[in-house]
Design a protein that fits this description.
By secondary structure, this protein is an alpha/beta fold. Helix content is about 50%, strand content about 15%. It folds into three domains: about 200 residues, 3-Layer(aba) Sandwich (Calcium-transporting ATPase, cytoplasmic domain N), CATH 3.40.1110.10; about 160 residues, no CATH class; about 250 residues, no CATH class. Helix 10 runs parallel beside helix 13, helix 16 packs across helix 21 and helix 22 packs parallel to helix 26. It is elongated and about 130 Å long. Belongs to the cation transport ATPase (P-type) (TC 3.A.3) family. Type IV subfamily. Its EC number is 7.6.2.1.
Length: about 725
């Protein structure tokens, strides 16, 4: 579609883009309901206007939502110009009209709606209302049932996309009814006892039998990629907790926008008790719904607490019977972070898919992070953007200079966290684990050969290898291959890493390098040292060359063992390498070739004859490596050392598969059999719609506007400037 031309409106924002000509044509044709819809948006708000430059209006809104709605309405030709305590001036399609402001029925967290009562230039009394869909639906006239159903379908679509929704309605008031109602309103405003309740009752008298005009949806302007990043991290079994100072409603709306909470959840628990007993009861009620058996005395954690009540314990992962979320306020946290309540909080929160802690102090943020570290065997990643987040930041921060200076990493977009963890973080963990396991293995195999040799040399501590080989083994012969493995190894590329976040799971449970893996490396090293010693020993023992000369000597045996060792280590690291590049080929096979070059140099006639006291293996390499039995021994030893690794790598995914093995098999299958792109289908969840009405963090400014105080002070300031 072509961009709509707003040239008919001189006050339209030139940067505003819109592509639906149908709505614009309805505005131009002065469709009655469309006219009332935009009129409601231009009148029902608490925005203040200011004309800093002639012809250029600047809006100061109590919340970004209100500012966005009034600005959008302005572009369609309904321009809110100014207000006083008694009037609102609007330019409607180029015509200036002044509405008498009779009453503002202000927004509150309980009402979740706002209304204004105005008298039009035609002397009609109109009530315009906007608010949360769940509230407005209850106030509509029965004749709006069919339109309400259609609007609800649209709101379902908006909510599924994470938009913040409002419903717009109006009512024309009879003059006699209004006169009676305004007296009640004035009396309620002037009363000193129970004023809020009386005002709410008066508001309810007029806010009924409303006629539905339509709905609005506002994008919660998050950074690009935030919801997608949260969803991807949750697939990697990374739990996201939001620790914020924002009000509960704002925090919950952000949680839904970020996909931390979803409409499909089985429930969201709200803990807002104001005393210890209430908070404890709310936490246990939530835990009972998620896992009833966790409250029984037979529960393993409860048994452990009964036996050792003062001993610190690690809370194991508990699996709930569904997907749940938890919202807890800072006031309730003050009780939940005390004494035995800590464990109740951790157990309940850790069973939830997402946790929102709102109205928190910086100290409470730090306490919650520390709480998880003490009770759970997990790694925490604290993300913050300001000085008030320094207390909880242990690893990462962005945007805020103070937070950045206290962090280990800093970046400017939240979505970069996805690649940092699932790509670079996972590669780094995999590389480090392979590096450590191979490093220990190659040194076990290298060193333990002397254990077997001790039984043949009378435990004299004589070394098997040449002194120069011992010097060069870790520094030259095997350093580059393991360095290449630790820098360039990739089990799968970054595309598959992001497509399958489940690949991140081994790092969370430390599956690739732990005590078990260390013992396996030790046993493999013992077996390899056994093969590396006894196969060359059997080959050399009472052996002769083809010309009848004896080669059953220590130097020949030493050469054969160390050459076989280098071959085995090279093939072992080749088995561990999944991503072959020019660098990895150069490092791996180049190191093997370098060994033979150095070998022939160190055992050359010229070097050994010139420095006989330092180089003793004169002609050993030339004489022995030309014998076929030596190469047969080398091949046999390499095969025997490789068989256990190949067999284990083949049988493990079949007999003892873990989730990552299944994912890797799926990736390999997809590489061989590419699948057609999936068809995108939109799934609706009727009945799970939530209200995204979050206009302000506190009570609205209706009383302040109608009192005229803010307007008088503004006029006084302008007068002072003139003087």
């Amino acid at each position: 579609n072509n961009k709509v031309d707003f040239s008919y409106n001189q006050l339209a924002d030139p940067n505003f883009s819109f592509y639906d000509n149908t709505l614009v044509e309805a505005v131009k044709s002065e469709d009655h309901l469309v006219y009332l819809f935009f009129l409601c948006l231009s009148l029902c708000h608490t925005v203040m206007s200011e004309e800093k430059v002639e012809g250029e209006l600047v809006y100061q809104a109590q919340s970004p939502d209100e500012g966005a709605l009034v600005t959008a309405t302005r572009n369609f030709g309904f321009v809110f110009c100014s207000r006083t305590s008694e009037t609102i001036t609007v330019i409607e399609m180029g015509k200036t009209r002044v509405y008498q402001l009779l009453a503002i029925l202000d927004f509150s967290n309980e009402r979740k709606r706002m209304s204004v009562v105005v008298r039009t230039p035609e002397n009609r009394v109109m009530l315009f209302c906007k608010g949360a869909d769940t509230i407005i639906c209850e106030l509509l006239h029965p004749s709006c049932a069919s339109l309400s159903d259609v609007t609800m379908d649209h709101l379902d679509d908006f909510a599924s996309e994470g938009l913040r929704t409002l419903m717009i309605a109006y009512r024309e008031l009879d003059n006699a009814f209004f006169q009676t109602w305004i007296k009640k309103h004035s009396e309620a405003c002037l009363t000193l006892e129970d004023r809020e309740r009386k005002l709410a009752m008066v508001y309810e008298e007029v806010e009924r039998d409303l006629m539905l005009l339509g709905a609005t949806a506002i994008e919660d302007k998050l950074q690009s990629g935030v919801p997608e990043t949260i969803v991807t991290l949750s697939k990697a079994k990374i739990k996201v907790w939001v620790l914020t100072g924002d009000k509960q409603e704002t925090a919950v709306n952000i949680a839904y926008s970020c996909r931390i909470f979803k409409d499909e959840m089985d429930g969201v628990f709200i803990v807002e008790g104001t005393d210890r007993e209430t908070v404890l009861q709310e936490l246990r009620t939530a835990r009972y719904k998620m896992k009833p058996e966790s409250l029984l005395e037979s529960d393993p954690i409860n048994i452990c607490l009964a036996r050792k009540p003062k001993m610190p314990i690690r809370v194991l992962d508990e699996i709930p019977n569904g997907n749940y979320g938890l919202v807890i306020s800072g006031y309730s946290l003050a009780y939940a972070l005390e004494g035995n309540m800590e464990l109740e909080l951790v157990r309940t929160a850790c069973m939830c898919k997402g946790v929102i802690c709102c109205r928190m102090t910086p100290l409470q943020k730090a306490q919650v992070v520390d709480l998880v570290k003490r009770y759970k065997k997990v790694v925490t990643l604290a993300i913050g953007d300001g000085a008030n987040d320094i207390g909880m930041i242990k690893g990462i921060g962005h945007e805020g200079m103070q937070a950045m200076l206290s962090s280990d990493f800093a970046f400017c977009r939240f979505r970069y966290l996805q690649r940092l963890l699932l790509v670079h973080g996972r590669w780094s963990y995999s590389r480090m684990c392979k590096f450590l396991s191979y490093f220990f293995y190659k040194n076990f195999a290298f060193t333990l050969v002397h254990f077997w040799y001790a039984f043949f040399n009378g435990f004299s501590a004589q070394t098997v290898y040449d002194t120069w080989f011992i010097t060069c083994y870790n520094m030259i012969y095997t350093s580059l291959p393991v360095l290449g493995l630790s820098l360039f190894e990739k089990d799968v590329n970054e595309t598959w890493s992001l497509c399958y976040p489940e690949l991140y799971e081994p790092g969370q449970h430390n599956l690739y390098f732990n005590k078990k893996e260390f013992i396996k490396g030790l046993m493999h090293g013992i077996y390899s040292s056994f093969v590396l010693f006894f196969v060359p020993m059997g080959t050399i023992f009472n052996s002769e060359r083809s010309d009848g000369k004896d080669i059953s000597d220590f130097q020949s045996f030493s050469l054969l063992v160390q050459t076989t060792l280098i071959w085995v280590m090279t093939m072992q690291i080749a088995l561990r390498t999944n991503s072959w590049t020019l660098i990895s080929h150069t490092f791996t096979w180049g190191s093997l070739g370098l060994y033979f070059c150095v070998l022939f140099f160190l055992y050359s006639d010229g070097l050994c004859l010139r420095f006989p006291s330092t180089f003793h293996f004169l002609g050993v390499a030339r004489n022995n490596l030309s014998q076929p039995q030596m190469w047969l021994c080398l091949v046999l030893s390499t095969v025997l050392c490789m068989i256990p690794v190949i067999g284990y790598n083949f049988l493990k995914p079949l007999l003892w598969p873990v989730n990552v093995d299944k994912v890797l098999n799926r990736i390999h299958f997809c590489l061989k059999h590419p699948l057609p792109p999936p068809v995108q289908t939109k799934v609706k969840h009727p009945g799970l719609r939530r209200s995204a009405y979050a206009f302000s963090h506190k009570q609205g400014f209706g009383d302040l506007i109608t009192s005229g105080k803010t307007l008088k002070s503004s006029a006084f300031m302008k007068k002072q400037e003139v003087l």
